[in-house]
Amino acid sequence: AQKVTQAQTEISVVEKEDVTLDCVYETRDTTYYLFWYKQPPSGELVFLIRRNSFDEQNEISGRYSWNFQKSTSSFNFTITASQVVDSAVYFCALSERGSSNTGKLIFGQGTTLQVKP
Amino acid sequence: AAGVIQSPRHLIKEKRETATLKCYPIPRHDTVYWYQQGPGQDPQFLISFYEKMQSDKGSIPDRFSAQQFSDYHSELNMSSLELGDSALYFCASSYHSSGTAIYEQYFGPGTRLTVT
């Protein structure tokens, strides 16, 4: 069965601190994709990154970086020099290829990040 | 760039009433997904469509139905509404996932449904 666990319910940091959001997933499929989405207080879900199970290269985009480790089934997200605008709920999600490959997302419980000035 | 459009943005209904939510995907996206997000919860997959055919079904109540039309827009119909149906309903669109590729989904702003 597929499952995504974000053990950190809430994280509070002071602006300019670095913060890492953890994501651990479970899947029996060998082909799968992992995603991160941001949900700011306004409510929309904003796509941040997509990573497939065959690509373990870490990725950096500005202040954001992602560390994918298949050995530990983790896909962690780090924000460097956090800013108040980073305050949001962050969701990690998994999509298995499975037999039908419909692309549906299974979300983790989300981590609420509060960045204080 | 064009985004996913959902209407209405807010909807207030009474118990046992019906509601219809509409979704217009990003142009050239052929797959539509519906998710339900309760307060303080993660989005839960309801149903998806590819080329006007249902492609997958999640935890969608029998009181709900959905379809995708020839112009790729989709509608989620909800009947006999219950208080527990109060939630944020998201529509997302993407390119069709096939072979080993699974594409990212882009979400609309959501429809906030309140059942009183």
Can you walk me through this structure?
The complex is a heterodimer of chains A (117) and B (116). With 117 residues, chain A is mainly beta. In chain A, 0% of the residues lie in helices and 52% in strands. In chain A, the strands form three sheets. In chain A, strands 2, 5, 6, 10, 11 and 12 form a six-stranded mixed sheet that branches. Chain A has a four-stranded antiparallel sheet with strand order 3-9-8-7, with no helix packed on it. In chain A, strands 1-4 form a two-stranded antiparallel sheet. The radius of gyration of chain A is 14 Å and the shape is globular. The N and C termini of chain A lie far apart (41 Å). The model of chain A has no long low-confidence stretch (mean pLDDT 95). By secondary structure, chain B is mostly beta strands. In chain B, strands 2, 4, 5, 6, 9, 10 and 11 form a seven-stranded mixed sheet that branches. A four-stranded antiparallel sheet of chain B has the order 1-3-8-7, with no helix packed on it. In chain B, a hairpin with a 6-residue loop joins strand 4 and strand 5. Chain B is globular, with a radius of gyration of 14 Å. The relative contact order of chain B is 0.33. The chains are: A mainly beta (117), B mainly beta (116).
In a few lines, what is going on in this structure?
The complex is a heterodimer of chains A (117) and B (116). Chain A is an all-beta fold and 117 residues long.
